[in-house]
């Protein structure tokens, strides 16, 4: 695998025939026009017209596209990557921040490969965007807003443009628990708050956090706190 000493960026066009390879540096693909199908390991990203694609170093990947297309492609040395966080393959919605990045690239990158201090500075900003995405993902926000209803891994994976299997790996890597356990923890913390700060019945609390049966709430508390919900309420209300 070849190494890279400087940030470079160029405009590239892809053919209908998939081209797969692996290299020691990271890549970032920013759309200009057309659609692109990307395979990163076992993860498939199809027709990512309005999405920015991040490819980690040493990850086998392939590209192909049907029809006319054009993309900005960053080649990023590993020393530009965060030292204390591993950024996994990612697909990012083309929001206002990425549109601003693309506008700068139109000024900096012509028809030949570009490499200069301004691109390096822009790359540092891009790394912060990628880290911010890991901290504030669409699926995480969705969990916090909808933990009280039944949520499937398929729904969450679709929000991040991942297949369910890769999404679970990605989520565990970033947040230390599986998506379903994260939802379970959200329900537990909200149930604790309702037990201590309201007079709702146990059945009402169970329903408010997304359970149909009071027994499910009881099992959750016994497993996580070692006490039943009623006992948790008595101890914490009396000590408050």
Automatic annotation (TrEMBL):
A single Gene Ontology biological process assigned to it is: methylation
Which Enzyme Commission number(s) are on file for it? 2.1.1.-
GO MF annotation: an example: DNA-binding transcription factor activity
**Coiled-coil annotated residue ranges, if any:** none
Q: What class of enzyme is it?
A: transferase
What SMART domains does the database record attribute to this sequence?
Answer: HTH_ARAC
Stored Gene3D superfamilies? Homeodomain-like, Jelly Rolls
Residue ranges of every copy of the HTH araC/xylS-type domain listed in the record:
137-235
Keyword annotations from UniProtKB, A to Z: DNA-binding, Methyltransferase, Transcription, Transcription regulation, Transferase
Protein name in UniProt: Bifunctional transcriptional activator/DNA repair enzyme AdaA
Annotated organism of origin: Methylomusa anaerophila
Primary gene name: adaA_3
């Amino acid at each position: 695998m070849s190494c890279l000493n400087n940030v470079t960026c160029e405009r590239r066009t892809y053919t209908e025939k998939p081209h797969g390879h692996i290299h020691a540096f990271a890549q970032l693909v920013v759309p200009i026009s057309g659609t692109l199908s990307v395979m990163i390991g076992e993860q498939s990203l199809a027709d990512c017209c309005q999405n920015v694609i991040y490819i980690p170093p040493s990850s086998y990947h392939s590209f192909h596209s049907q029809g006319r297309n054009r993309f900005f492609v960053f080649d990023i040395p590993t020393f530009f990557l965060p030292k204390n966080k591993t950024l996994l393959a990612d697909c990012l919605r083309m929001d206002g921040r990425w549109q601003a990045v693309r506008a700068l690239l139109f000024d900096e990158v012509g028809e030949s490969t570009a490499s200069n201090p301004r691109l390096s500075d822009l790359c540092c900003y891009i790394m912060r965007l990628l880290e911010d995405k890991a901290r504030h993902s669409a699926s995480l926000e969705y969990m916090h807003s909808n933990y009280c209803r039944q949520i499937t891994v398929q729904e969450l994976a679709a929000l991040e443009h991942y297949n369910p299997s890769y999404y679970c790996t990605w989520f565990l890597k970033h947040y230390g628990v599986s998506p379903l356990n994260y939802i379970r923890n959200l329900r537990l913390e909200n149930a604790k708050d309702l037990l201590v700060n309201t007079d709702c019945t146990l059945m009402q609390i169970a329903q408010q956090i997304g359970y149909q049966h009071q027994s499910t709430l009881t099992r959750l508390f016994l497993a996580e706190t070692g006490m039943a919900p009623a006992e948790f309420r008595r101890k914490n209300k009396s000590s408050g």
